[in-house]
Amino acid sequence: MRISRLFGAMSSLLMVSSAFMLSGCVVDREHTVDRPVPYEGYYDHEHHRWYHENAWVVCDVHDPHCPA
Predict the structure, then answer these.
(1) What is the pLDDT of residues 48-63, one digit of tens each?
(2) Cβ distance 50 to 59 under 8 Å?
(3) Which of 11, 16, 57, 64 has minimal Cβ neighbours within 10 Å of its Cβ?
(4) What's the total number of domains in the chain?
């Protein structure tokens, strides 16, 4: 009886610790510190474009959203 209780406690501890470890291993490769999450109106200085309606828009001469 004592061994079965010990086995049950150990197996439940193993399952809980596995769940905690696996839930912390999610990595979002698309959004990092180097590449910030784009939001509506975000201007990307490096590529001279801005984010509008879930897409990048390249700036042109007459675009009011882009700096001159």
Answers:
(1) 888 888 888 888 888 8
(2) yes
(3) 64
(4) 1
